[in-house]
Structures are given as C-alpha cells and as structure tokens.
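hey so i finally got around to running both of the ones u sent me last week. sorry it took forever, my laptop kept dying halfway thru and i had to restart like 3 times lol. anyway pasting them below in the order u listed, first the sequence line then the structure token line for each. didnt double check formatting much so if smth looks off just lmk and ill redo it

first one:
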Amino acid sequence: MDKSWIEMPRNTPQYMEGLKTFLDFSFANSSVRGEIVCPCPKCNFNKWQCREIVYEHLIIKPFPKGYTVWLLHGERKGANVTDEIHVMPRENDEVIPANNPMCDMINDAFGYHEYNDDMVDDRETGAESSHNMNDDLGDFFQLMQEGQESLYEGCDKYSKLSFLIKLYHIKCMCRITNKGMSMILELLADAFGHAKIPSSFYEAKKIINKLGVHYTKIDACPNDCMLYFGEDANMDFCKKCKTSRWKAKKKGTSDSGTSNKRKKIPAKVLRYFPLKPRLQRMFMSSKIAEHMRWHASKSTNEDILRHPRDSKAWKTFDLKHPQFASDPRNVRLGLATDGFNPYGNLSTSYSIWPVVLIPYNLPPWMCLKQSSFILSMIIPGKRAPGNDIDVYLQPLIEELKELWSTGIKTFDSYGNEVFDMHAAVLWTISDFPGLGTLSGWNTHTGLACPRCNFDTTPKKLLKGGKFCFMSHRRWLDGRHRFRLARMRFDGTIENRNPPVVVSGYDVLQQVENVNVEFGKEPVLEERAKRQRGVNHAKLDTQQWRKKSIFFELPYWVDNLLHHNLDVMHIEKNVCDNVVFTLLNDSSNKCKDNLKARKDLQLWGIRPDLWPDENGRYLPAIYTLTNANKDIFLKTLKNMTVPDGYSSNISRCIDVKQRKLGGLKSHDSHVLMEQLLPLAMRNTLPKEVCSILVDLCMFFRQLCNKVLRMDELDQLQSRVVLTLCYMEMLFPPSFFTVMIHLIVHLVEDAKLGGPVQYRWMYPIERWN
C-alpha cells in the first residue's frame, strides 16, 4: 500500500486520495460501533471518532508522519511477525473513555505528544526524536488498549491497566513478596472470572514493565577488579586476579547425562540504569519540562542563597562553560551514594551501594523529592566497594562524557521542539567515609581533612591512640590574643594563616604519580595473609589512594566544589561528642576518660585535670553531677514536639540509669538545634553553657532554608571563636575530625548553597 501521501501537503490531491484510502481501510478492519481511533495530533490516538470527524481532523491537522504501520487500525506489524497484534478492543468489550489519566500517563511515558509543522524532521537530523512513532509503537498501542478496556463489563471506574498499577502500588508500599502477589492475583482471577485479571504476578508485570525504562545487567569480577563490558564483555576470567566470571557449581552436580548444558550464573552483577533515556523522559512531561527551566529565572537578590543556582560554584561553572549555560534545559546533576543493609539487620555483614543522581534544574519544592531522584546503578555486596568504586562507575562516566560532548536529541514537550540535551555533574554527596571512597583521599590518618589537605600538622594522642584535630586559632585574626596563649590550648604558639583553598588543578598535581590497581584480594588469600601477619592493606599509609575517575570528565577539574561535607553526619557526631561527654558516659563516645587526662599530662597543659598516681582525677567543669544529670535528662524526656517533627526522643532516655542512647541522625538534629540549649540552661556553669549554646546556634543558622552572604561571614568568625573556646574547655581527645570539619562548613555553603541540597537526609530516607 502506497503511503507516500503522508509526507505531502494537505492541500494536494495525492493527500486527499491517500486519506480516503486510509479511512476505507481503517473502517473495514478496526471499526467499533462505527468509530475508529483518531490519529490526529489533537486526539493523539486517545479518542474514538466517526468517519466525518476523523476526515475533518486530518485535513486541519497533519497526519502523523511516523505512523506508517497502521497497527491501531487493523494492519499487521510487519512481514517478520507471524502473529497479528490485536490492539483493538473486541466487539463485546467495554471501553472506558480515552481521555482518562491512564492514557495521559502512557503518553508521558512514551513521549507521543502533539506537534506542529515547524518541528524538526527526523530524516533531516539523522536522529529518531521521541515525538515520532518509533520501535515501541506496538507496546504503546497495547498499553493504550489496556488503559481503555474496562476491568469487567459495566465497570467505568477501573481499566485493566489502572487496576494493575494500583495493585502494584499496594505491593510496593506494603512490601508484599512476588509469591504473595501471585497468590492474590490467582485468587482474584478465580473469584472474579468475568474480570480481566492476570492469573500471576509474572503476567501482570509483563504489562506494567512496558511503562518503565529498563536497566542493564553488567557482570563484574567478584573481587571488584573489572567489569565485563565493552571490549571485555566476552571474557570468562578476570584480567587481574584470574577469578572466574561464573559461580562455581554446587558439589554433586554435573552436566553428564543431560543434552543441554546448564546456564552459567555470574558471580557478581552490577545493575546499571542508563541515564540518557531517564533524562529524556523528564522532558516528555510538559509540566516537568517547564520546571526544568526554573533555575534560569532571574534571582531576586544576588546576596541571598535559596538554591544551588545562587551559589558561587554554579555561577562559576556557567562562566567557564558559556555554551553549556546558554540552554537552560541542559541538566545539572548531583551524585549521591551510600551503603545500606538490604536485610534490615545491622548485625548482618552485607553492604549494597546505590548511586543516585539529583537534577538541580528543578525548583526547591521539587528538587529533593524522591520522585525526582534518578537511580543510576546498584553496586552489589556483600563487601563494600571501597576504593574500587571507580570500577563500577565506568559506565556512568562514559555516558556523562557523551552527554557533555555530543549530547542527545530530546523532545521538549513544553517548548514543542527537539533539542540537543547536555548534562554535567556539579558535585558528589556522601558521608565522610564515602567522601574518601569517591575522592581517593584517605580519611583515616592525621591528614584526614580534605579541605586542609597537606597544610596541617598531624597530632596523635599517645595514650588515646587516635589523632586529634585542634589548631583552630589559625583562622583567627593575625593579632588575636589567643594565638599567643600556649597553656590554655595545646602548648604552642599559633603563627600560621588559614590553609589555602585546594583547587582541582592542585589535586591533579598531587595524584599525578599515584598508581593503583583496583580489586580486592580473594577472601581465602586475605585470611591467610592475616594469619601470617602480612599487611594486606598497603594503601592505608598513602594519603591519596587513587586518581578519582571523576577527573575523566572534561569539566571536573574546573568545579569549585567536588565532594560535599555532609552536615547531617557531622551534626550527629558533634551531638554525640557533646552529650556523652557531659553525661560522662562509660561508652567510647565519651571523650573524657583516664587516657584523655594522661594525654593532658604528657602535653603539659591544664594541670588541674591531671590524674594522680592511682589513676583518679577530679571531674571537669563540663561534667554533670548526678543531680544535674537527672535535671538534664528529665527536661529532655518531658519535652513534647508536634507530630512528625521528630521521633519520640523520650524513648531514648533512661532516667534511672542516667543514660541516653539510640538516637537517630534526625533526633540529633532536633536535639542539637532546639532541645539541647534548653536542657543545659540550669545544669551547666555559665561559661560552658554559653559556648555550647553558640555551637547549637551555629548549626541552626547554617541549616536555614535561606542564607545571606554577609551573615555567613559573621557566622564563620563566630564559629572559629566558639571552637577556640571549646579547645580551652575540652580535652584534645574531644576534637575528632568531625569537630574540626565544622570550621569548613560555612565556606562550603558559600560555594554550594543551602545545606538542604547537599546533605544525606533525603538519600538515606530514600534508601
């Protein structure tokens, strides 16, 4: 059948004659009650119309140029398909009106939207844009049928597709197993035989899966040495450790006596979710496509930070890459990762690492919603990837490089046009050990602070056995009196200036000669080396353990902020240090003990806190007495907050044993910023209470939704002075790296914007 008339102008005789041929064919093969599905851009394959109306629509509006195989109007899909695809409701089927939310959702999923004559033709661009009918046309029409067929005769509320989607939503929310879902569907299909209900979850999932974007399975070496993709896709053994790609067969099984060999099972599989189709899908919805331009709207005040688009890092990125910034639809992303136990049992040794991308183009009320997150990959356990995470990030980095250099043709349903979409990663988000995993900086040494870099002096406590991070006086004014006070601090005079900010080019020079082979040693060999006393962790003594794979991105070296300091975990650790030290708890979280007092004696400072020959020492000014502990804990226990503000903190308090435990990260957030200043008011001396209240107020102001640049400068000066006063009160063991990182949080806020867009709360709740 000649279909060249589709490309011709609508006022030509060839188009008129071809349109009549289409109508004759459609009403002869797919008519239901004298109507067919109208393919015009206005009806968009959603409405049933009579012949006269369809003819009028296709004269006023163009015939879909990509619709050359008339599947929805009775034509077979092609010569290579043996069975005809029936996508039309049968004569005795009830039909739900086509303008229902299911049809809108299907249109958004496949990107079949109305377009005009000014749009780019695929044959001219050499690409297949999402507004044209493509290879997924059969799935689209089948889903349209499922979305329009009523669940049973006379049902006008649920279609077959809407019923399955609602049932699948219940399964996900209530964590029903696949087996349990199959049993439910089997019961429903048996009880309601007249309804169009699949008899198993497998059959139902085959229908629902057509709405989603699929993922790719990439086999990996069990020791994290390499991925089997690209040129190595057909290898059977690891290039480095020679470990087999496949799981070993169970004892007692063999292939003898069977005609077919058993399927090989990979030992480790990376689930990778391609980024390009997921970014394209965001522009298939006209509402989301409109919001993706929000960041380009003019800011009301240049000195106010409300969103990452107001930050220095964002603006500098736009200045250095004007071509990327010229189109507001180009996507700016944040990469977040964290390990979690999928079995919900903290005693189980298992760690899975999802990698999530956050689109920062969206406005504040959409940016951090879980529905906006893009899952990029799931790195399997059982062991955490650690330094070898770069092996698993290779597919994502390759895709990001393509999105930066060439981009991808994307249909913008809001602007009704096709454009070249590009994307870039601005920074990463993780907890502090995760920062070391992503960046390659060793966070377990005396140089653990990535902001200070090598411009610091490690101080290890001889009795405590750990590093302490003090010397906050270097951030004070050069003539401040605290710089000369030796005995009130660490026994030295401080003449240094603040450390110089380390740029991406500085990091490249430092890691230039760092060579590393990815992969972990096999478990059996590792255990044997431990028994022989061999140090198998050779990289633990190196400060830079690798050159991060992110430097393969052309723009990464120019970014001002590479890896964020997570305020959530910093605030949690600071809260634990303060509370458990005040309570003089017997756990390791208390930083005032006999070893800490002996370190004071070795340093020759604060002789009033030194222990005697028998190991006894006087309580410090910050240590609560038993009576004050009772007041402190009862005050916290009796406080009530609105529903949803925090968990029930009173459950974490044992007044009889004078203990506090089981605090979650958000509990520490509420405790630090709201409750702790009230509980300390009548239990601590004024000089201690005022300093700790200043510390609480610092976190409260830092976590504001709106930050002002002039207030941030004042906040930095105040927090440096607060840390110096704390050095005069608490022992050196109190100053872990988490306490020290407080001094860098204000500078990170200037570079990246409000902390709500750069901390781990939404990521951990999503996990």
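and the second one:
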Amino acid sequence: MNGTSYLEQYARAILSGKITAGRRIKQQMRHLLDKIEHPEKYEPYIFDPAVADHHIEFIERFCKQSQGRRGEPLTLELFQKARLEAIFGFVDKNTGYRQYNEVLIIEGRKNGKTTETAAIELDMLLNDGAGAPEIYNIATRLEQAKKGFVECWNMQRNSTAIRKLVRKRQNDLFCAVNLGFIKPLAADTNGLDGLNAQMVVIDELAAIKNRDIYDLMKQSMGAGTRPQPLLFCISTNGFVRGGIFDDQYKYACNILDGKAENVHFLSFIYELDDREEWTDPAAWIKANPGLGTIKKVSFLRECVQKAKDDPAFLPTVLVKDFNFPENRSSAWLQWQHIHNDFEADLEKLHLRYGVGGFDAADSVDLNAAVALGMIPGDPHIYARAMFWLPEDVLAAQTTDGNRRERDEAPYLLWERQGLLRSYPGSKVDKHVFLDWFRELRDDDDFYIIYIAYDPWHIDDTLLREFKQEFGERCMIPVRQGSLTLSAPMKELKADLAAGRIVHNNNPVLQMCLTNTEVLADTNGNIKPIKGIDLTQRIDGTIALICAYIALINHYDDLQAVI
C-alpha cells in the first residue's frame, strides 16, 4: 500500500476530479477524509487501516473467483478496497470495536456486488474473531436469499483453504473451528426474532416491499450479545417506491446533508446527479464504480442505445444501471412526477376552503379520501389525505404471524404514523368519509365546498347525509370511464410534473400513484387501472383524481372564497 491507505487514495482521486463521481460519493469521501486528517473531531473513533487491511488481505488471498476465471484469486478494485477500509478501519480507540454497524451501498448492476458480498461474508465467518458467528442472507423470499448464499457456496468450493474449514450442510455453510455458519432466511421464516447475528446481508434491498424484515434484523442485532455486528445492505435502485429502500436512501442522504446524525451508519451512493446524464458516457461511472474493469463499457453502451431506440426499456436502464428512481415503463407517472421536494407545514398555512374526493372500496380493500386546498397568491395545490382499512385485515397479520403484510405494504406502520386508520370489523363503513370531511371542518377550520365521488359505491342514504352536512349542491358524481377521466388525468399529470401538487410525499398516496397504470382507447382517451397485479392499490389515485375534477370544475368558486 506504500504508506497511503486505499481510502485516502480513492477519496483524493474523487475530490480532485481524477475519478468522476456523483455528489453523494463526494460528500462521503470528503467526510471520511476529514475523519482521517482530523481524528480529534471524531473522538473516540480513529482510523486504523491495518485493521481493515487484515480483512482485505484475507479476501484477496483466500477467496477465489466462482465465475469467469474460476479458481483464480479475487482481486479487489480500488473503490472496493476503499469501502472495506471505511467499513472495518474506523474503530473505537478504547475498545477496538468497529464504529460502523450498518452499511448501505447503492451501485449499478454488474459492478461485482454479489461476488464482493460473498467474500465479505466468508471473511466475517472466518476472519472477524467472533465466537460462533451467525451470518444470514435475508430476502423477502427464500429463493432470493439463496442467491447470495449460493455465491458463498460456490466461492467456498473454489478455494482449497476455505473448503478445509467450511463445509456445506443441508441448509447452511458450517465452520467447525468456531461453530459459525452462513445461512439464507426468508421473511416468512419462523424464529427471526431470536437471531444473534454477527452479520446480516440484505442483497437487493430495493426488492423488499415492506420494512418489517429490515426492522427485525436491525433490532435483533442491537438486542444480541455481539459487540460489533454488521448489517450490510447492497442494492441497485428498484421499481418499488415508498418502501424500505426509499426510506433508507432518504435517511442516508439526510446524514450526508447534516439533517440527521448517526455515527454508526455508513453509506456509499453511486448515482447520476441528473436524469439527463444517462446519455453522457463521461457520467456513467458516477453510478458504476467498476465501469471498465468489472462492468464492461460495451455492455452499458448497448443498454443505453437500446433505451434510446426503445423508450419502454429506458426505465430499466435508468433504475438498474444509473440508480435513478423510476416506475415501471407501463406506469402512468414517473417517480420524478410523484415525488415533490417541496413540502409545507399545512397547519401554518391554515387552509380555509377546498374541495374533496373519495374512493370507497367494495369490501375489505383500501378506502381513500383526499382534500385539496389553495391560498391566495400561491399557485400550489395542497393535498391532505386519509386512508382506511378494516381492523380485521390489520389484525390478521399480527395473529397469524405472517410477516408479509397485506399487499406487501407497511399498513401497520402507516397506521401508527396516523396516515391510515383502522375501522372495527371486517368492512369499512362508508360513513368514514363523511366523518373525515366533518373533522377537517370542525377541528381544522378547513371547509370543503365540493366533494367528488364514484356514484357506483354510494347509496342514496349516505348521499343525503352528505348534502345535509355540506349543502345540496356539494356532491359531484364522477363516472369512472375514460371519457370522464381522460382530460382531468392529463391535466393532473402536468400539475404533478410541475410540482404544483403538494402532498408532503404521503407514502400511502405515493404508493397508489406508483401503482397506477393507464388504459387507452382508440381515440387516446385514458383511464386508471391496476395493471396485472391486482393487489396494487390505486384507491388514493382515484380519490385524488376525483378531488382534482372538483377543483377544475369549480376553480372560480374556490378562488372567490379563499
């Protein structure tokens, strides 16, 4: 290494521009280099590259290639060595234990993450000094968890030295010397609460649709007896929006931006800084640190060209090669339309008048209501939303031990956060909509003057009650066909793309917008649909469209009273 650590070499190359990098990697390298150069600011943690290089040397000496040049030594690239030095090299000077117990790595596909992760797992099994280390590959389904495990197994079979110490049993790789093992586990496996993990690997975090499994792993490591466990998450971006990946990504960015503090959390986010950079070969390395060495430039060039020729392939390239958030190619909206960086304190704005819309489920599904308000001189449209599920639906997961929530969405978390409400029994009474709009009026002084709804789901009795409460002319029936919905949907999409709709990134509403696809007729008129996966809820989208129709149909009336 000739006196200068790999981390310092990499950080200085990044910050000098010798290696092209995105903003998030520059932020992290600047921070890590400052920790090395000014350790007094970060007491009691110091940088000890010898500790880290102990792990690097093990990997390069004993871990062998299982693909391509099978059996040859695994040679790590500079960016990989720098990351390993950051993960293992910062230690508490009093105890010698690692500073970082959670790592998030986001990088484009084909940058060697599966091979690198398998090598780290074997290193943690044999070379971390832990007694009976338990190492788990975790995924939503066992088939996914086995992918990383199989790579460890293949690497073990190609290394004579490791094969002498580690043997394959029916469900794990076992080391008789220290009684440790590597094992794949799925979200629905019994006994996840009782783990005492030395390392947990979540490969492709973006594929996990709810955060329950992540929370369990995080809590089990904190509650165990391990002095320096490691939660290792590595992933490309994905098409699942509003899940644990987006939460962890936002958390990592908040730490880098100084908005949050966690001295035990370390992230490496390789991504484009701007969506349009996908056509610029000079920017490709920002999301692909192994470009030209591990990942072939020709492969990426072919993918980019296909995306230019076939727009349906573009979302895949943006997400998987450049880590830019997107939805499926068939989705109504792009993620950049759904996510709005502008958020507002609705209590301080004090919305006085607005319009509403709601979507009532047939039976046990998600129910949604949206209220839209404006204030004088402000072009933004501010959205408030509420959702309901039957109490029996939410309780079912707790009672039957199923860790995969209904629709694979974190409804229980959203209920705790006040974003969703449960209704006693097995069905939601449609009076919840009436009660919520009353609540906005009576508790928040927010008067809803028009309410749009799908007449298919509302009986005459409830309709009379709405009119008695909010006025004879307040209710606006909206038929759910393309002739009625097409023009408003196109206008709403334009307002969402312009950032005019401020919904404070409500995760339930975002989930519904993300799930929404469109069906077009021969005249180009569109209407919202769920697509192939009927568990993908779009009720919030329907409620928003209804409210938006009320807004555009009675815009002058609203402007007159605000």
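quick thing i noticed on the 2nd:
The first strand starts at residue 45 and ends at 47.
anyway thats it, ttyl
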